Amino acid sequence: MGLTLKNPIVPSSSPVSYTLDRIKMVEDAGAGALVMYSLFEEQIVQESRQLDHHLSYFTEAFAEALDWFPDMGAYNIGPEEYLVLIQEAKEQTDLPIIGSLNGLTNTGWTTYAKLIEEAGADALELNIYYIPTQTDVSGAEVEQMYIDLVTEINATIDIPLAVKMTPFFSAPVHMAGRLVEAGADALVLFNRFYQPDLNVTDLRVEPNLVLSSADELLLPLRWTAIMYGRVPTDFAITTGVQTHVEVLKSMMAGAKVAMMASELLRRGVGRITQVLENLTFWMEENEYESITQMQGSLSQQHAANPDRFERANYRKTLASWRDDPAGQGLAFK
Ligand SMILES: Cc1cc2nc3c(=O)[nH]c(=O)nc-3n(C[C@H](O)[C@H](O)[C@H](O)COP(=O)(O)O)c2cc1C
């Protein structure tokens, strides 16, 4: 992506970057870089509609109508404050700062990509969070929406662009290649979809923000290992990175960066320092001189036919089941 980081541990987009104080703590903890929490398309559009509204009526008499727009609540501050925070973070820390835009359509809000660049961000991460629910929109059309948005934003900025992609494409490797062709300088695997639960007593849909666990690493780990060497770009892994072991696995699969959110929200940003210490200790014990040395060492780069390899592994995994491995007669009772 063109950024030189002192180490591969990067807090991903989350409340860890809400305030300047927190950003300074991230720097003190030793992170390689920081991805800011996202500025959302809806926020930008809402702000500009409010402005239009005030300009055209010179009154706030109709302000109640604005309640219709989804309330971002306390999640984060407005677009202008976001830019100021990036500017302050750049002035008051030495951290590489990656701005984050979260949206879907390529309408006016994408100008914020340039504003984030002008505020001093070293790079931009684009998170396209979209759940296609219409029966008449095809997979090909959804993919094209992604490509159009990446093309548009890439044309707007001069700083590097990372795309945080979803794993839910029919052909993720092909799609990753298209995103890179459209202008992504790096791919972040993967966007984590929040899955609301149903409350059967109150008959309600319940938003459900569960922090991740380390076994969720396996999905981005596998796809990074598959894409490394096949899609010409840099990879960052997000989801399930909690200790130096997940960082090592991410690097060996082929990522250049291992991102952390849940673990930092759970245990504080001081966790970065511990993970770095354990990582360094492990590398010394195992005689690694650099992170570069291990990058991609467990990728599928050299598998002649990864489809076959995946299929063989699938069969091997199913066949590894033993009815009663501990000999305690527990199975099938
Ligand atoms: C409270 C919270 C807020 C988040 N906000 C954003 C966001 O604004 N933009 C974004 O791209 N990802 C956001 N994420 C997703 C994280 O950046 C990350 O990709 C995801 O949590 C998986 O990583 P983890 O397993 O280390 O938590 C958020 C996650 C959490 C838990």
Order of helices and strands: EHEEHHEHEHEHEEEHEHEHHHH
Please bin the fraction of helical residues.
40-55%
Proportion of residues in β-strands: 5-15%
Mean pLDDT: 89
Number of strands: 11
Rg over alpha carbons? 22 Å
Extract low-pLDDT stretches.
53-72
Task: Output the structural class.
Answer: alpha/beta
Shape: globular
Number of helices: 12
Distance between the termini: 55 Å
For the biggest sheet, the summary is: 9 strands, parallel
The small molecules bound here are: flavin mononucleotide
Task: Tell me about this structure.
It is built from 12 helices and 11 strands. It is 41% helix and 12% strand. Helix 8 packs across helix 10 (271-285). Strands 1, 2, 3, 4, 5, 6, 7, 10 and 11 form a 9-stranded parallel beta sheet that branches. It has a two-stranded antiparallel sheet with strand order 8-9. With 333 residues, it is an alpha/beta fold. The model is unreliable at 53-72 (pLDDT under 50). The radius of gyration is 22 Å and the shape is globular. Flavin mononucleotide binds next to strand 4 and helix 9.
